[in-house]
Design brief:
Keywords: Signal
Signal peptide: 1-28
Pfam family, one: DUF6689
Number of domains: 2
CATH class of the largest domain: Mainly Beta
InterPro entries: DUF6689 (IPR046511)
Protein name: Cohesin domain-containing protein
Radius of gyration: 19 Å
CATH architecture of the largest domain: Sandwich
Shape: globular
Strand content: 25-35%
Distance between the termini: 40 Å
Number of strands: 14
CATH topology of the largest domain: Chondroitinase Ac, Chain A, domain 3
Structural class: alpha+beta
Number of helices: 5
Length: 281
């Protein structure tokens, strides 16, 4: 059924909830990790305390070097007042760590072991520590190299709480309650999409960048004019454009050495989470 099994190293950080203690790992535990290199996925079940646990799955399009020796995943129970986390939140007042699930998950493949993937990965978290309700503000956020956390949610669901997202690069993941209004969230995701495209211009041909830029401009124009239907049609067209490419036009490889930009993967991630927000707005 599965190709190989090993242990996922989970460093558990119990900081209580005081201002005086943070940044020391303690009570490190190891939990079973299942890796199926043929199916390009990994899964794990993690229990950080009697009240906090989760199931994790990561599905890749294609991988090289997906082995137990190459993957390091850490999970931490956070201090809700930890300034090292709070300063990375997109809004210090309206995005908050849920008390029932103060968990940081870090996925850091060994930079010297040659792991790489192409396209996007899909990450899903399931936890009984949180409960899904219609209209829940709980979302999955990602931060690359200690940067600001960004919403990558593409699905939320029940049982008890399940959330899915995708991405083109790794580092830290966290579930946050996002109480910002919908238009603010949509504009922030549109800006992220535009920024990824602009920062990737030097890696694209002039024609490829023009097509990408025109597609994103069509999304932005529809959003800014308040035409939700047109915005959804434009974002679907953009996603189709990116998914149809195999890396020939838009570079789509990420390596653990962190020396390549996964342009296609990052663009798909930004576009699909924007589509999610447009659909629920």
């Amino acid at each position: 059924m599965y190709a190989s099994k090993t242990l996922l190293k989970v460093a558990v950080l119990w900081l209580g909830f005081s201002l005086s203690s943070y940044s020391t790992f303690a009570n490190a535990v190891e939990v079973p990790l299942t890796i199926n290199s043929q199916q390009n996925n990994l899964t794990a079940s993690v229990e950080l305390s009697t009240l906090v646990g989760f199931d994790l799955s990561v599905q890749f399009e294609n991988t090289v070097g997906l082995t137990p020796q190459n993957m390091l995943v850490e999970a931490s129970l956070l201090n809700l007042a930890d300034p090292d986390i709070l300063h990375r939140l997109p809004d210090s007042l309206l995005t908050t760590i849920p008390q029932a699930f103060p968990v940081l998950i870090s996925i850091r493949p060994d930079p010297e072991k040659g792991f790489s993937f192409s396209g996007v990965y899909t990450i899903e978290l399931y936890t009984k520590s949180l409960h899904y309700t219609e209209g829940t503000p709980l979302r999955l956020f990602h931060s690359h190299q200690n940067g600001t956390f960004e919403d990558i949610t593409t699905m939320t669901g029940s049982g008890s709480y399940r959330v899915r997202g995708n991405g083109g690069q790794f580092s830290d993941f966290i579930i946050l309650a996002d109480l910002r209004d919908g238009s603010t969230i949509i504009q922030s995701k549109l800006t992220r999409l535009e920024n990824i495209a602009n920062e990737s211009q030097s890696q694209l041909s002039a024609g490829a960048f023009q097509v990408l830029s025109d597609s994103i401009n069509a999304v932005g124009s529809a959003i800014n004019s308040g035409n939700k239907g047109q915005a959804l049609a434009a974002i679907e067209s953009l996603i189709h454009l990116l998914e149809a490419d195999n890396g020939a036009v838009y570079p789509d490889v990420w390596r653990s050495s962190n020396d390549l930009d996964n342009v296609r993967g990052n663009l798909i991630s930004a576009a699909t989470t924007l589509r999610f927000s447009l659909r629920i707005e």
